[in-house]
Every structure is written in C-alpha cells, then in structure tokens.
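Whiteboard transcription, Tuesday session. T.W. wrote the structure tokens on the left side:
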C-alpha cells in the first residue's frame, strides 16, 4: 500500500471535493470549552437549573457539546428544543420565520440560554426572542457558534459567539444544505460558493 502521508486528508477533513474546510473539529472543541467557561462564570440568575433551548435542527451537535462542557463545570441544566426555520431549502433565506413549536419547560422566571448554530440575517433569533420574551424569563441570553455579521438585517448581537463567520454558505457540525453535511465534525464551505 502506498503511503500518502502529508497529502492525505486528516481524520478531521472530508474526502468529498465539494467541501472546503474552514474550522476544524479540534478548533470547534477548544472554542466550545471556552464558551462554556464564559457561560458558567456569569452571575447567577435564580437558583433553578439553566435552561438551554436549542434551535432545531442545526444546533443539535453544538447543544450536545456545550451542555456536556457546562456539566463538566458543575452547571445544572434543563435542555429543550424548538423548531424555527427561515430556510425552505437551498442557500437563500426567504426572510419569513416560523417558530413552529414551544418548549415543554415553563420559562417564566428561568435563566434561559437560546442556542443556535449560526446567526445570519438575525431574523430567526429575533422571532424566537420575541416569542420567549412574552413568557418573562428571568434572563434570556443567546449563544451562537458562528456569527455571519455581514448579512445581519436587524442589528442583533448574540451574547456569546464562538467564531466570526465569513459571508459564505457553511455546512457541517449540524449545519446543512438540503439536509446534507450535518454529520461532518468540522465546518466547511461549498467549493462552488
Ligand atoms: P437567520 O434567520 O438568517 O439568522 O438564519 C438563521 C438560520 O439559518 C440558522 O439557524 C441556520 O439554520 C440557517 N443558516 C444561516 N446561514 C447558514 C449557512 O451558512 N449554512 C447553513 N445554515 C445557515
Ligand atoms: Mg437553524
């Protein structure tokens, strides 16, 4: 068998030529730990466990890794998910956001952290914040792994941000293009974008 050391893809990379790696799985792991430190060291807002609300479906790996890192730091959690979507498919946002479900946990008086994969136009998070604010949590903060600030339409800023993101359509670590590439452990962009 011929050795291709030096030129073969690492375990972190995808062999499919259409994805150009941008953020490695290792870098994501390091940043998630640092985010967990930031969240764990905030002043307390109440005695009940912190409520993580993940936005399905892209935030799933991020919520999983962040919640485990928070647990390692002794932060008690309750975790739930809601569905909100602004993408019907493809890479163009129609700009209409539907919040399609409510959390099973009663959020009134709770310390709530909304977690999403990527903040793009900001319309999704704005709609979810508006829906949740009505039930008067003690604190409603936001945490996104990626911040694609160049495309923001509403000036929204997340309280916790993993990485700034260039104005490219990205996939991997939960993010998809027509439900593909969510399983990638790293974040990349389409070679053609
Ligand atoms: P926003 O409402 O435009 O901020 O979009 C937020 C949602 O759009 C995110 O939760 C993602 O599901 C999706 N999204 C935005 N940009 C990308 C991207 O580059 N790749 C994959 N999904 C994206
Ligand atoms: Mg999403």
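and on the right, the sequence the group agreed on:
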């Amino acid at each position: 068998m011929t050795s291709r050391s030096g030129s073969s893809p690492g375990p972190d990379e995808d062999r499919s030529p259409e994805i150009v790696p941008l953020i490695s799985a290792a870098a994501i792991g390091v940043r998630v730990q640092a985010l967990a430190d930031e969240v764990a060291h905030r002043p307390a807002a109440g005695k009940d466990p912190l409520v993580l609300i993940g936005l399905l479906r892209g935030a799933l790996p991020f919520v999983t890794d962040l919640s485990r890192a928070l647990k390692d730091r002794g932060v008690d959690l309750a975790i739930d998910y809601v569905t909100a979507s602004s993408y019907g498919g493809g890479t163009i946002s129609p700009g209409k956001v539907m919040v399609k479900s409510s959390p099973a946990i009663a959020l009134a008086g709770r310390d709530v952290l909304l977690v999403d994969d990527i903040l793009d136009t900001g319309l999704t998070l704005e709609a979810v914040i508006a829906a949740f604010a009505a039930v008067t949590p003690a604190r409603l903060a936001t945490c996104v792994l990626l911040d694609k600030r160049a495309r923001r339409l509403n000036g929204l800023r997340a309280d916790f941000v993993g990485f700034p993101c260039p104005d490219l359509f990205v996939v991997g670590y939960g993010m998809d293009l027509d439900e593909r590439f969510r399983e990638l452990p790293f974040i990349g962009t389409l070679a053609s974008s």
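Someone added at the bottom: The two ends are 35 Å apart (CA to CA).
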